[in-house]
Design brief:
Length: 263
């Protein structure tokens, strides 16, 4: 469900995890959540003790590039199931879903690592993950209408809607084809944002999370050796932990993309 304006938090909104489960557990500890992941195979479980009254929100891209995508999924899925968290899908989650559905996407941009890790998991877990991602709302509208969370961002006029165009923007942001290296050409949609809703998103790694026109990107590139970052809402406090390693090579410099040219 996209329209959750009656959910008023407080929330702890976590940036792109990308399989960095150890950093996620450490960050959650900083936020006051107790996390344990125990067992092997079909018996592997994640249990979380949440601070009273608070919920986590994942901005998507739980998988790819990092060393432990299945455990990142276990933590998020278990918390959502128990009402401790909300989650939106990222573009990497959407591509991983295509693999789970048997649609044979290219095993690039870290999907090869996720697939290798998932091949060690039981079929029941595959089915649970598929159902989880398929059910995720493409964005969330929260806190009396004053907060929206989407993976790559959302324009003010899109909030509360679920068309294919809205879904594409929430997953990929403002894009226009690919560059010479085969990477999507991105534009800094937030530079022109003038909405009253605070927008929290990820997708484009930045060195430090900072507010731009009432929007905040909290992807600080953990899988590339940066940091894993969360926003406490409504306190607007930013909390982060350093990556334990650089799990993937950067193909772009950290930072917001350029503004889309006019004309």
């Amino acid at each position: 469900m996209i329209d959750r304006r009656t959910d008023t938090g407080p929330f702890d909104i976590v940036g792109d995890v990308h399989g960095c489960a150890d950093e996620l557990i450490e960050l959650m500890g900083r936020l006051g959540y107790g996390v344990e992941v125990t067992g092997v195979g079909e018996a592997r479980r994640a249990s979380v003790e949440a601070p009273k009254g608070r919920r986590l929100i994942f901005v998507g891209d739980l998988v790819d590039r990092g060393p432990a995508s299945p455990d990142a999924l276990r933590i998020a899925m278990g918390m959502v199931e128990r009402g401790q968290a909300l989650c939106v899908p990222g573009n990497h989650d959407a591509r991983f879903l295509r693999w789970l559905q048997g649609r044979n996407p290219k095993l690039t941009h870290g999907l090869d690592l996720t697939v290798a890790q998932m091949m060690l998991e039981p079929p029941e877990f595959h089915a649970d993950v598929r159902a989880f991602i398929e059910a995720l709302p493409v964005h969330l509208w929260l806190d009396g209408g004053g907060l929206a969370v989407a993976h790559a961002g959302v324009k003010s006029e899109m909030i509360g809607l679920a068309s294919n165009d809205v879904r594409q923007f929430c997953l990929y942001g403002d894009t226009d084809g690919v560059d010479a290296d085969g990477l999507p050409i991105r534009y800094h949609w937030a530079a022109g944002y003038r909405g009253t809703e605070a927008i929290v998103y990820g997708h484009t790694p930045v060195a430090e999370a900072g507010w731009v026109n009432n929007t905040l990107c909290i992807d600080t590139g953990c899988c590339f050796g940066g940091r894993l970052t969360a926003l406490r809402w409504p306190e607007r406090e930013i909390v982060s932990v350093p990556a334990r390693d650089g799990y993937a090579a950067r193909r772009r410099a950290f930072g917001h993309p350029p503004v889309r040219p006019v004309g």
